[in-house]
Amino acid sequence: xxxxxxxxxxxxxxxxxxxxxxxxxxxxxxxxxxxxxxxxxxxxxxxxxxxxxxxxxxxxxxxxxxxxxxxxxxxxxxxxxxxxxxxxxxxxxxxxxxxxxxxxxxxxxxxxxxxxxxxxxxxxxxxxxxxxxxxxxxxxxxxxxxxxxxxxxxxxxxxxxxxxxxxxxxxxxxxxxxxxxxxxxxxxxxxxxxxxxxxxxxxxxxxxxxxxxxxxxxxxxxxxxxxxxxxxxxxxxxxxxxx
Amino acid sequence: xxxxxxxxxxxxxxxxxxxxxxxxxxxxxxxxxxxxxxxxxxxxxxxxxxxxxxxxxxxxxxxxxxxxxxxxxxxxxxxxxxxxxxxxxxxxxxxxxxxxxxxxxxxxxxxxxxxxxxxxxxxxxxxxxxxxxxxxxxxxxxxxxxxxxxxxxxxxxxxxxxxxxxxxxxxxxxxxxxxxxxxxxxxxxxxxxxxxxxxxxxxxxxxxxxxxxxxxxxxxxxxxxxxxxxxxxxxxxxxxxxxxxxx
Lengths: 243, 247
Fold this sequence. Notes:
The structure holds two protein chains of two kinds.
Chain A: E1 7-19, E2 26-38, E3 42-46, H1 53-60, E4 68-73, E5 76-77, E6 86-89, H2 101-111, H3 118-127, H4 143-155, E7 161-165, H5 173-188, E8 192-197, E9 209-214, E10 217-223, H6 229-236
Parallel strand pairs in A: 3-8, 3-9, 6-7, 7-8
Antiparallel strand pairs in A: 1-2, 1-4, 4-5, 9-10
Helix pairs in contact in A: 2-3
Chain B: H1 2-17, H2 20-42, H3 47-75, H4 80-87, H5 93-125, H6 133-136, H7 138-157, H8 162-178, H9 189-201, H10 217-244
Helix pairs in contact in B: 1-5, 2-3, 2-5, 3-5, 3-7, 3-8, 5-7, 5-10, 7-8, 7-10
């Protein structure tokens, strides 16, 4: 069992309900969900569309407030200032539209209170393949380029915990290889990584823990070795609402 | 925290500066200035007063429209691109909202300075004397009314959809301009109370001066305090609501 000092992130009995706007019917998006991310580990959360993966990540990032439960970071309740040590790559279409990649990184560094030189930012832009497009407005970038910028914005400050929401979505095959290499690089440097995806084929082979969400509940948990596709697949099938 | 606030405010300002509405605002101002001069040559009314009335109308109407549009778009809870990246940093939602308003305030300030320059220049070109210090108060007064109505728009945008917040902001703007002009009825205590309440707490006519002699510095300072109090109330409420909301 992992001691609390070794845990970077702990979600304890999280529950979240939402009310449908027209029918006023309450739907449980997260149900009594608990998970832990250890220092330096790579964890993957799997689930079909609408399983509650993004809601969980948004709850961790403070965009949504759980109705019950608690989120702890490095052994204490997660606070705004802790986000200095967290990198978050949201789903697509969440970049500031009227800024350029260069401006986005310069402002983000200032928001995080990081002293990063312009040369370092240029290096990062070269690394993610956006140097030529550094002065193009973000909304004019292709989806793949947008994902590359989202990666740069999430990882530029070398966070303790990196949260990636569908990192491979909309990325071309070359981009996927690059993205996988960058994730591995940070894993080897000791960064804790939490990846949320619905694509089984894209789980890194060095993954330490796999969680499967279905209808907001944790239905499967495995800590190494990486479970086989056949073991995971039955848990990924959406449960019918009538069932 | 302060450097985050400054960075976020500058980012919000840059977003608005790149908005097509700023260009539209400047173009409208230039067009109205020239239209005023054309109308001026047709009319028998005192020409300077006419120019002043057109200036006042254009600042009030078009400026407020831009302030409302910017106020609702700079929060934009429906558009993830507005907040996701910055709020994933070590920034509280209240600080983010205040920084967005500060950026908006700077953009409106830039717009009023541009309007003042265009107007002064055209007066000088047409052979009128430059505006006196008291007449110039029309610009800061209208700027204050924009700042108030944009704070109201930010307030509505903190919990409503964009279209709903636009509608609510326009409605309260019209109420603030019209209600103080409506005669208070003596036979309806409820209506009398509502009108008196609006005149006291939501009176946008304080910023809509019609006389070209301007207002005294004392009255101006009182108006600034009134505006500051209204802006503070709106932002406090907006920040409280926005902090509790699921995004």
